[in-house]
Amino acid sequence: MPTTIRFLVPLLASLQLSPPAWADESLGIDGLHLVPFASAEGLNRLTRTSSRDDFAPLANQFEAQATIAFCGPTSAAIVLNALRPQGNEAPRDRSRLRSEDARYLPPSLELTVPRYTQESVIATGRKTRAQVFGEPATINGKTVSDGGYQLRQLDQVLQAHALSTHLVIADERVTDNDIRRDLIDNLNRPGDYVIVNYRRAAVGQSGGGHISPLAAYDATSDSVLVLDVNPSHYPWVWMPLSTLIRGMRTTDVSENRGYILVQDQPRSLLR
User: Fold this and answer.
1) What is the pTM of this model?
2) Collapsing DSSP states into helix, strand and coil, what is residue 4?
3) From the centroid of its chain, how far is CA 31?
4) Taking a C-beta distance cutoff of 8 angstroms, is the pair 222, 241 a contact?
5) Residue 187 is part of which domain span?
6) CB atoms within 10 A of CB 219
7) Interior CA angle at 9 toward 194 and 221, to 5°?
8) Is 5 a member of any domain?
9) Does residue 231 form part of some domain?
């Protein structure tokens, strides 16, 4: 076991001085068995699996979504920061600064750090901020209120940041085995990531459509670790792969949900 994981798992376990009520119980309904990451079983799965190369980079860059509509841009920001941890191409987002914040600092001091944020991700998309929050827009000739992000809309945002993506819609043209192979292969490789779009109600949770990155696969339980970007609603959770596939095979505004495989472009193409 890598030194980092040997150190991390006992540390996380030691922090559970007063574990929440759900920490050692499965979440969900209808026998869907969603296991919280912070439970003893959840930590054990991370310890024993070899398919965890994505966990440390994503966990290091993790942030919670700022609003209910931001699960897509939050997932994109986490993945962008994991792919480009040095921030060489990242913008300097000043959206959270107030006019008086630099009052007592030297004029030469830049308060921001180069980092992809939920706000900077939204600014690169074709969808306006107002549309993200539900302003009606014309889609396929129809005027609809389309809050948040459909998977194709998020894929366009990722490509706008010069990322290489492979979008898969989980419809009848794609078999469960195809999906399993894509997700497991991705989680077995370092340096690329997967973002999933599923319906919460279909996986035993309350709520509608949701987007988050995956961080690991445990073959023993045949489950994937979902780094839920709305942890105030649900914690990071190990979800059976069959349950996730069920959640992706649900209809969004115009088509089924699915997933995006993401990797960075060669450095030469980013200049």
Assistant:
1) 0.84
2) helix
3) 24
4) yes
5) 16-94+108-270
6) 13
7) 55
8) no
9) yes
